[in-house]
Amino acid sequence: MSIVYRLSRFLSSRTIVQNNYRKMLSNNVSARINMIVMGNGAMMQPSLIVTSDKINYLFNCGEGTQRMIIEHNKYLKLGKLQNIFFTGTSYENWSGFFGLVLTVAEIKNQFRFHGSKRFAKIIQMYRQFLQSASKVELQHVITDNVDTVIDLIDDDDFLIRSLSYKESTAYILIAKDKIGRLLIDKCKQLNIPPGPKFAALKNGETIEIDGKIIQPNDVLGPPEPGAAIVILECPQYDYLNDFYQKIENFNPYVMGKQIELVVHMTPAMIANNSNYQSWLKTFDSNVKHLILNENSCYDLGLISSTELQIKLNLLDNEIFRSLSERQSCIATDEKFNFECKKIIENIPNLFTYQIRPRKKFEILDSNCCWLDVKKIHEEILEQQEFKDRLNEYKTLTIKNQQQMSYPNVLFLGTGSSSPGKQRNTSGILVNLNEGKSILLDCGESTILQMIRFFGHDHYRQTLQRINVVFITHYHADHHFGLIKLIKERLKLSDQSKPLWIIAPYSILSFLNYFDQNFENISKGFCGIACETLSFDKITKKLNQNEEKQKLLQQIDLKEMATVLVPHCFESYGIIFETNCGKKFAYSGDSMYSDSFDYIGKNCDMLIHEATMNDDLWQEAEYKRHSTISQAINVGRKIDAKYTVLTHFSQRYAKMAPINLIDDELLANYIEKQVVIAFDFMQISFENLANAARLKYPLELLFDEEIQRMQNVVSKRNNKRKLLSEEFS
């Protein structure tokens, strides 16, 4: 069963509106309304969220948006999100939308989005990946009415309108006037009794007392006026010349209100153009302009994962190197004095404009711009037991003073299902040598993770050397970042060799459909079906063909083979061996598999999913995943020199509960040969022994988290015991 999709009608449309045809007073205006920057354009596509006491509105939804909302749910409240507005149809504007839909499906059964009629085809393209959201009804409000203003939303806080040109849509948010305070003294003078009469007057209704008609204005103070905010995208020069310069700066569409802020989601090349700058000057001098584009210089926003990396870096700065995110301390940076500026740009994520109660700019969370590394380290080292364990680890480790040797592995995403605060979805970069790399799976925001690790100036070099992407299966958390990776790699150079994408037929068909119906990406990749490289479990032989030999030659590998594994339709694991004799095995998402065991035998590094703790083995079996012990047992059984555990449930975001395993057969193997993967962990065969030893200082670092998990397991076991006794 697939997701339900239907078109919804907008409220009304008018070619031009010049008078207050609609009552703009509201008795139920939210006490606090904020407009918060979700993506400033530096790493994440420009996007905003407007939050109120009752409901939230999201404008654009690029990759990483749902992770930002989850990270800052204290302020942003995913449960209050009901409408998404798209300013255009470019992939970057909506690349995070379907991941968000899958997450929202757990708490909502209806979701509305506003955008071009072209989204109907986009929905059709992604429908096959939204099976777990089958109970959600997606309502699509089409905004394609050129030169016509469309009323989309009319609630207690806003009248929201759209104005479209080609495939670009500008949104006008007109804040309702807050009805004036009830003047009790005047009510007493007019003999109005407290109770329903008061409520009626506050609701704007006329009442009668002793035969006298009393109007609301007779007993109400002056209303608190609302203003207008415009959110627009100008993707090309002709949009400015043919449209925006001709609509009188939106003044005919704002119900007589004053425009106080215009948000420009416009590329720097256009925003810096002299014609665009001249257009900005035609607005009233009191209007402020907020520019969101790639020239923004501050990356931080995903605070939890950055803070986690700072802590892990204290344990081992080779395995957990510092991230290359650009930060700024707003407390000392004069650039953040916004109130006196007319044009505001180069701002951090979570930059906020307070619409109510008072109009001002602020930073929602000071940590979003800067984290004090020294302070974080000092707080950890105050724990003497941890300090002793850390010193013990450091005396046992062998440090490689040179650069990370080849081959090495960088984990870009180690969580399952959906992005979490500390763990992104699947993505593992295997660097074979200086010039060639293989990417195992490509969850949403894989490119963003690369930028966070390597920095804006260096991630392109890494992207350039990725020759192969292997996608294990069609579940969203394993490939929703693939199109972005193809597009970013195409930007590097016309001389770039195409990617080899090894994937199930369903993924290759999806990429071809995207190429033919939406955007040309076919010159950026060469598709190979997993079946072409598959292991024959009957003959116990590896598939040998001309296409495979060509691939092996181009990426300097001795062997590569895929194998069907038990998870969902067309799920594959993979093994590959380098010319220097190092053998890797990657399970993808999988239950136990004899075939995978056979081809993975004696591998140097097994990377195996370990989605759930052992006490959830029934759930793991139902969802066709492996538990932590099952994954470790595969490594022991096939004589893997090291087993690296990944793809953890977001229940175990900080630390996998490996210490809860009580199995003597596995104990020795766990101690010396099992590694727990984290996002941004980089390992080579020279430091794998160190990575295995890290389990012990990690247990102390996350002692509270481990205690919490132990309590959860105990409660769950006690509940099962009671139920068992009840039915025995």
Short account of what is shown:
This protein is an alpha/beta fold. The chain has 25 helices and 36 strands. The protein folds into three domains: 4-178 and 224-367, Metallo-beta-lactamase, Chain A; 184-218, no CATH class; 393-715, Ribonuclease Z/Hydroxyacylglutathione hydrolase-like (Metallo-beta-lactamase, Chain A).
CATH topology of the largest domain: Metallo-beta-lactamase, Chain A
Relevant CATH superfamily of the largest domain: Ribonuclease Z/Hydroxyacylglutathione hydrolase-like
Strand order of the largest sheet: 1-9-8-7-6-5-4-20-21
What proportion strand? 15-25%
Computed Rg: 29 Å
**What general outline do the C-alpha atoms trace?**
globular
Enzyme class: hydrolase
Cofactor: Zn(2+)
Keywords: Endonuclease, Hydrolase, Metal-binding, Nuclease, tRNA processing, Zinc
GO cellular component, one term: mitochondrion
Describe the structure.
The chain is of the alpha/beta class and 728 residues long. The protein folds into three domains: 4-178 and 224-367, 4-Layer Sandwich (Metallo-beta-lactamase, Chain A); 184-218, no CATH class; 393-715, 4-Layer Sandwich (Metallo-beta-lactamase, Chain A), CATH 3.60.15.10. The chain is 30% helix and 23% strand. The protein is built from 25 helices and 36 strands. Helix 16 links the parallel strand 25 and strand 26. Helix 11 (303-315) crosses helix 12 (373-381) and helix 13 (384-396) packs antiparallel against helix 24 (695-701). The chain is globular, with a radius of gyration of 29 Å.
